[in-house]
Structure formats: C-alpha cells, structure tokens
Specification:
With 203 residues, this protein is of the alpha+beta class. The chain has a domain of 137 residues. The chain is 32% helix and 21% strand. The chain has five helices and eight strands; from the N terminus they run H-H-E-E-H-H-E-E-H-E-E-E-E. A hairpin with a 2-residue loop joins strand 5 and strand 6.
Length: 203
C-alpha cells in the first residue's frame, strides 16, 4: 500500500515531466536571418516567370505552325536586361509547356543601346547564324518583338560583332533597315481573347 506522501511525490513528478515535454513545443522561437533567407529563396523558385519584363518564346500550335508567345521575366524592362533574359531561353516549367527559343544557344549580347528615342541597336555574337530558314526568321522576330514591348521602342537595328547585316522579314525578304513588329505579321499569337459569337435574338 502506497503512503500518501509517496503518492503526492509521484503526482508532482508526473506534472513536472508533462510540463517539460510541452513547454519546448509551445514556446515561440525566433528564426535567424539565414534561415529566413533560405525560406524566401525556396518560396520564390522560378521567379523568372514573373515581373515587368516581357520576352517572346516559340510554341507550335495544333497545325505545327510556329507562333511566338509572350512570357514575363523578373527583370528591368530595359534593352540589355531584357535581351539577356531572352537569350537565357525558356525556364524548365516553360519547356514542359512546349515553349522553346529559335535563338541558338550560346548567342551572346555584346551591347544594347538607344540610338534614337524610338530606335534600339543591339550587337550580338555570330552564333545567331546557327539558325537558318524559318528558325532564323523566328529568332529575329523574337528579338524585334521583345524589344518592341519596351514603351517607346518602335524600330530595332541588329548588328553582329559590330557589323550591319541583312535580316529576313516575315515574308523572307531581306533588309538592312531597322526592323519593326509590323515586319512579322501573324508571327506572334494574339493576346486578345476570342470575341463571343453574335446571336440574333430574333432567330
């Protein structure tokens, strides 16, 4: 038979043990800055797909026709930053969505600057010529349409290693004049929603 003092002692030990097991879990904990940074980085994975910058990538439609579609990038909407983002190509998740770039890998930006209020001149590496035929048209269209997304930019000059080149328009004709988005009609997918069908209420 247990004595009252022994029973009281056992009760106190049980209460103290329970307090120790829950106290550590219930108390608040300060997260260090290093851990906070890791959490922020993990929560912002693939952040390159959001932001104010806009670039054009290529997608095949149901008829195997190549169309350029606009995607976002978390970069400044300035010529050097936006062209470097374009040359980086699609992200992993964009590749999973069948997006690609006609611009050959290894194409580098040498410079990108305004030569007039509405004209940007870009100088790129000769890797661009690894693209031929329709791929070259798409590659040039990607550069032109991407830069045309910058407010005020209407014409684009493209040089290779500092030398002026002739570039194909959407119809295949060549020009050394500044290019505009109007040189590539129908190349970019429309961002406008389809209009609803008009139904005559009298029918």
């Amino acid at each position: 038979m247990r004595t009252p003092s022994r029973t009281l002692l056992l009760s106190i030990i049980v209460i103290l043990a329970g307090a120790c097991s829950y106290g550590a879990q219930d108390s608040s904990r300060v997260i260090g800055r290093d851990l906070q940074s890791d959490m922020n980085e993990s929560s912002s994975s693939d952040s390159s797909e959001s932001g104010i910058g806009r670039i054009y990538l290529q997608r095949s439609d149901n008829e195997s026709t190549q169309r350029l579609v606009v995607v976002q990038r978390d970069v400044l909407n300035e010529p050097p930053q936006i062209i470097n983002a374009l040359f980086d190509g699609p992200t992993n998740s964009e590749q999973d969505q069948s997006l690609r770039s006609a611009i050959p890998q290894g194409t580098k930006l040498i410079s990108a600057r305004y030569v007039a209020t509405d004209i940007v001149k870009v100088d790129i590496s000769e890797n661009i010529f690894q693209a031929t035929g329709d791929d070259l048209i798409s590659a040039v269209a990607q550069i032109v349409l991407t830069l045309s997304e910058i407010q005020g930019v209407e014409r684009i000059l493209i040089a290779v290693q500092g030398k002026t080149q002739e570039w194909p328009r959407g119809d295949g004709s060549l020009t050394s004049e500044p290019l505009t988005s109007f040189d590539y009609p129908g190349r970019a997918a429309s961002s406008q929603p389809a209009f609803p069908a008009i139904v005559d209420p009298l029918l």
